Amino acid sequence: MKNLSLIILLSVLIPIGINGQCRGFTKKTGRPLIEPYIHNGQMNSAVLFPGDSADIMLTFYSEQQYRLVICAEEQLGDVSYKVSDIERNLIFDSKNSDSKVFDFIVESSQQLVISVEVPKSENTHDISFQGCVAVLVGFKN
User: Fold this and answer.
1) What is the pLDDT of residues 50-63, one digit of tens each?
2) Are 113 and 55 in contact (CB under 8 A)?
3) Which of 11, 44, 92, 116 is the most exposed place for a label (fewest CB within 10 A)?
4) Which of 135, 140, 138, 137 shows the shortest CA–CA distance to 25?
5) What's this model's pTM, rounded to 2 decimal places?
6) Which residues, including other chains, have CB under 8 Å from residue 69's CB and lie 6 or more apart?
7) Distance between CA atoms of residues 66 and 87, nearest Å
8) Which residues of the chain are modeled with pLDDT < 50?
9) Dist. CA 140–CA 133, nearest whole Å
10) Could you give the dihedral angle defined by the CA atoms of residues 27, 79, 53 and 15, in that order, rounded to the nearest 10 degrees?
11) In whole angstroms, what is the distance from residue 32 CA to residue 92 CA?
12) CB 111 within 8 A of CB 87
């Protein structure tokens, strides 16, 4: 019974610790890249493994200037991202620009899909690592 309690406690605390580390990384690394834009206050981050991908859908409003920042911990390698409309028509691909920052204006209010992809690891050993990936949005008045 004592071991079961310890397992339950650890399964609750470990994600909290990882999430806290990701939040700290996002504030330290991503927030400075937003400037001179104003951060929208949302922390969109996840802990990912090599080969993982994730999609996030965000709403953007007409005639507003935006800055999208994608930052990832170094051990994940060259994380790439794409911005598409809701029908998956490509708007921006970081592989074509090699930039972690994308500035844009939307003509009409719409939802966009940000797809983040972590490259597969070239490690030949069984040790698996993970890292934080964050998507931040800033806007200008």
Assistant:
1) 999 999 999 999 99
2) yes
3) 11
4) 135
5) 0.79
6) 30, 33, 34, 100, 101, 134, 135, 136, 137, 138
7) 20
8) 1-18
9) 24
10) -40
11) 22
12) no
